[in-house]
Every structure is written in structure tokens, then in C-alpha cells.
Design brief:
By secondary structure, the protein is α+β, with helices and mostly antiparallel strands. It is built from 12 helices and 10 strands. The strands form 4 sheets. It has a 3-stranded antiparallel sheet. A 3-stranded antiparallel sheet has the order 6-7-10. A two-stranded antiparallel sheet has the order 3-4.
């Protein structure tokens, strides 16, 4: 059996980030072969994932990435089992790496796609597995999505102070000068923050499926069943409008000024900037 020197252990530790004893055991098992020892450590991570498959990953963080020109942005949710590990150096290092993988991912959505993204010969799934082997906890990518502008506009992102909620909103503008105006930048940031707080179901009422609307109407009608038919109709209409105002982003009262809707806030900001703007889409991710 090959003698395992301290320098070999240190080299493997530097390459893998694993503990000294784990590195020594892997080298002993691999008979001193560094590459085989790395594979052993990676398999350890896969074994941990398999063994803890049923564990809940209700901790973690939402990671945001934005391109230098502001034309592209992305969000990815990285989940683990405990808050202790979510704050560890190993997890933080994975978070930092995730931003690079979000930037490089050729797809605009899907956890499987970012896991399969390759940087310098290493997939993000490998980074995740190695982090699992170091921490001993199950980890996974919960959600992933990227936005890319195809015309004048801007993308607003917001990560809540606890790191567990993140949003991204894409705003289309009449021209580039409107998108570059401070009023629009502030509105985009504020609306992204608004989304984290209010959890809108859709952009507008057209985004809510007919089945949901009919279900809500039936509930409202049942609540007013003892009223005359013409009164029931008015009550249902009123409650449905309230439902849309509570669940559709454009109709929601703005969190910083509930006398105005989100749509009004954006319209006013665009007017101040000398043009027009409208929200094209948004996404909200939450850990847990």
C-alpha cells in the first residue's frame, strides 16, 4: 500500500475543500491516486444525497445575478437542510459560484438546466455534490430562471434581507432613454420589492385561469345566497374585483403608497422620464 504523506493529504484538501481525515481516508482507499481520491469524495457526496433524499430542504437562499449591461438577469434558489449550513463558508462559496453558472446557463429556466451547465469542465451539479460531501447535508436547486431584454427596457431584482425571497421583474419601455432614467430604475426596484411582499398570482386577470375564477365566483355566490339574484350578481362582481386587486400585480395597491396601483406607479414614473413603460413579466422565488 502506498504511504500517504501529509503533503498528499494537504494537496487533496486544497483541491477538494474536504476535511483532513476524509482526504486521508480517500487517498488510502485510492492507494495514493489523487484523481481516484477526488472521485471517492464526490461519490461520498452522491451517497449523502441518496441517503438523505427524504429530508426537507427548507433553508437556503435565493441568488440574483445581473449582467453588466443590465440586459440580462437571473434568479436561482439554493436549498439545504439547516440554517447553520446555509451560513457556512462552504455554502457561501457555492452561492458565489452559482452566480457564474446562472450567467453561463444557455437555458432561461429549469433547475436541471443550471445543474447541467458546464464551466471549465465542471458542471454545477458537481459543485453542489462536492458541497454536500463537505457539509453532510442534502442540497438542491429549487428554482431557476433568467430574463433577457429583446428591446428597450430594464430588469429589476430584489432579494429580501433574510435572503429567502427573491424577485425579478422585466419592464418594457418606449425607448432606451426612458429605461435609463432614475425614475424607472427606482420604480423597477420598488416593484420588485413589492412583489416579494404581496405574492401576486399573475400579472393581470388574464393570467388567472378560468377554473380559478369560476371557483371564486361560486364561493362568493354561496356567501350571498340569501340575497336577491340581482344583489348576488353585484356582490359577486364586487368581490371578484377585490380578488383581482389582491392577486394581480398591476391592480394591487402599491406597498409604498396604497392610494395607487402598481400600474399607476409605473405609468407615472415613465411619464416623468418622458415616455411609456409596462411590465412584461415577473417571477418570485421563496425558500421553504
Amino acid at each position: 500500500m502506498t504511504e500517504i504523506s501529509a503533503s498528499m493529504v494537504m494537496k487533496l484538501r486544497k483541491m477538494s475543500g474536504q476535511g483532513m481525515m476524509d482526504c486521508k481516508k480517500a487517498l488510502q482507499e485510492a492507494d495514493g491516486d489523487i484523481d481516484k481520491a477526488l472521485d471517492i469524495l464526490r461519490k461520498k457526496g452522491l451517497a449523502t444525497l441518496s441517503k438523505r433524499a427524504e429530508r426537507e430542504t427548507s433553508e437556503g437562499t435565493v441568488v440574483a445575478w445581473e449582467s453588466g449591461d443590465g440586459k440580462r438577469a437571473g434568479l436561482v434558489t439554493l436549498c439545504c437542510e439547516t440554517d447553520f449550513v446555509a451560513k457556512s463558508d462552504d455554502f457561501v462559496a457555492m452561492v458565489e459560484a452559482a452566480q457564474q453558472y446562472v450567467a453561463a446557463c444557455p437555458s432561461d429556466k429549469g433547475a436541471a438546466n443550471i445543474l447541467d451547465t458546464d464551466l471549465d469542465g465542471e458542471k454545477f451539479s458537481d459543485v453542489l455534490t462536492e458541497t454536500v460531501s463537505r457539509t453532510g447535508e442534502k442540497m438542491q436547486v429549487g428554482d431557476f430562471q433568467k430574463f433577457a431584454l429583446d428591446g428597450p427596457g430594464l430588469i429589476g431584482t430584489y432579494i429580501h434581507f433574510n435572503g429567502k425571497v427573491g424577485t425579478m421583474v422585466e419592464i418594457e419601455t418606449s425607448d432606451d432613454s426612458v429605461a435609463a432614467a432614475d425614475q424607472l430604475k427606482q420604480a423597477a426596484s420598488d416593484i420588485a420589492m413589492h412583489i416579494t411582499a404581496t405574492k401576486p398570482v399573475s400579472l393581470d386577470k388574464d393570467g388567472i385561469d378560468a377554473e380559478t375564477i369560476e371557483r371564486e365566483k361560486a364561493i362568493f355566490a354561496e356567501q350571498a345566497r340569501n340575497k336577491p339574484p340581482n344583489i348576488i350578481e353585484k356582490i359577486v362582481e364586487g368581490k371578484l374585483n377585490k380578488f383581482f386587486a389582491e392577486n394581480c400585480l398591476l391592480d394591487q395597491p402599491f406597498v409604498k403608497d396604497d392610494s395607487k396601483s402598481v400600474e399607476q406607479i409605473l405609468t407615472e414614473a415613465a411619464k416623468q422620464a418622458g415616455g411609456e413603460a409596462k411590465i412584461k413579466k415577473f417571477v418570485r422565488f421563496e425558500v421553504g
